[in-house]
Amino acid sequence: MPINIATTPSAENLVGKSHWWGAPDLPESIPYPYEEVADADGTTYPEPLTFVCQIRCRDIAPLDADNLLPHTGMLYFFAPIDYFLGYYESPLDYHTPPCVIYSPNEDNLEPYELNWEDTGESIFADAEKIELSQSSQLCDDGMRLLCQPIHDELEGFDPDNDLCLLQIDEDDRWGLRFYDCGTYYFVISRKALAERNFSEVRGKLFFY
């Protein structure tokens, strides 16, 4: 069954815990995901994907009776959504593939450091605490795991064989808006999910 995600600002130390935004607490062996992009003169450079959230898998376990996800370790979600957060000069768009990383390691983690070149400040927004809850609705608004899309007409989604691993809804509090109105989906086939093959995740944006 789907899992609802509620987020709240928090002064709590969220390192190694489930959180939305903030910096990913990646093991040293896992590099931050980048996309190679090209300047007008053809020079290429790495552009980081937006870190969306990390989910500590043992937080999912009580809500995942079908064992669709791992129940130990960490899941990290990255997407090309800087533009929709107001960074309109971002060279990435929604056609850029997202990235989902699973790591069995959930101990001795440290926040990844990534700073703006001009100011030296962290590129990451303040982390927000995540609370997970069971949902009986396959389709619903909000931030959700293991659901069906709100939009029946989502291109390339096969309801018999696919699931939305993560659904990202708009939120005015963050200035997150997908054009006039929309939703971003991390889509995975049930086969790939059963095989824990998160490299098969596709990004889908529905918008008006």
* Unreliably modeled segments: none
Write down the oligomeric state.
single chain
Mean pLDDT across all residues, rounded? 95
Principal-axis shape: globular
Largest sheet: 10 strands, antiparallel
Using only C-alpha atoms, the radius of gyration works out to 17 Å
Strand content: 25-35%
Number of strands: 12
Order of helices and strands: EEEEEHEEEEEEHE
Q: Could you say which structural class the secondary elements and strand pairing correspond to?
A: mainly beta
Spatial order of the strands forming the largest sheet: 7-6-5-2-8-1-9-10-11-12
* Straight-line distance between termini: 28 Å
Walkthrough of the structure:
The protein is mainly β. Helices cover 4% and strands 34% of the residues. It has 2 helices and 12 strands. It has a 10-stranded antiparallel β-sheet. It has a two-stranded antiparallel sheet with strand order 3-4. The longest helix is centred in the C-terminal third of the chain and has 5 residues. The protein starts with a strand and ends with a strand. The model has no long low-confidence stretch (mean pLDDT 95).
Secondary structure blueprint with pairings:
Layout: E1 3-9, E2 19-20, E3 34-38, E4 44-48, E5 50-56, H1 57-60, E6 74-79, E7 99-103, E8 128-134, E9 143-147, E10 162-169, E11 182-189, H2 190-194, E12 202-207
Antiparallel strand pairs: 1-8, 1-9, 2-5, 2-8, 3-4, 5-6, 6-7, 9-10, 10-11, 11-12
What is this structure, in a nutshell?
The chain has helices at 57-60, 190-194; strands spanning 3-9, 19-20, 34-38, 44-48, 50-56, 74-79, 99-103, 128-134, 143-147, 162-169, 182-189, 202-207. The chain is mostly beta strands.
